[in-house]
Amino acid sequence: MITESEQSVFEEWGDFQESSAADSPPKGDSVPEAYKVIDPRGDLVVTVGPDGDDEVSRQIRLCSRTLSRVSSVFEAMLYGGYKENKSDQSDDWSIRLAHDFPDTFDLFAQITHGLTSCVPQELSLDGIYQLTECG
Asked: Region (Disordered): which ranges (predicted)?
C-alpha cells in the first residue's frame, strides 16, 4: 500500500520539469511515453530494448551510482574500462541495454532506487528469473 507521502513524491516526480539539457528527455519538447524518470537528479539515461524498435524500447533516467552500488556488473560497465564509461567532454550520459526486457529493467531500477512500494506483491517464476538477469 502506498502512503500519502509516497504518493505525493510519485506525483511530484511524474510532474518533474527538467531544467537543463542533461536532465531533459532526449527528443522533442514533450516527454514521450517510453521515457521514465526513476531519479529526477539521475545522471544516466538507460535505453532498454532492441535497437531500432522504439515501440518496444524504453528510456529510464536514474542514478549511475545507485546502480553501481548494487551491481558489480554495472560498477564495471559504468566506472570500469568499458565503452559505456562517461566521457568527460559530455554532459549527457546514456547507455543501451539492447538484450534486456524494458519492463523487467524498469522494475529492477525501481527496486534499486528504493521505490519498493511500486513492486508487485507477486512475480511469476519467469519474472523473477528475468529480474535476476538484470544486475
From this structure: 1-34
Q: What does the angle CA 15 – CA 13 – CA 130 come to, to the nearest 5 degrees? A: 125
Least confident of 22-31, 42-51, 76-85, 96-105: 22-31
CB 46 within 8 A of CB 97: yes
73 near 82, Cβ under 8 Å? Answer: no
Helix residue ranges per DSSP H, 39-101: 64-70, 72-79
Alpha helices, DSSP H, located in the chain: 4-14, 64-70, 72-79, 102-112, 125-134
Find where cell 538484450 sits: 99
Question: Is residue 10 in a domain?
Answer: no
pTM for the full model?
0.67
Query: How many domains are there within the chain?
Result: 1
Helix intervals (H) in 17-83: 64-70, 72-79
DSSP structure class, residue 117: G
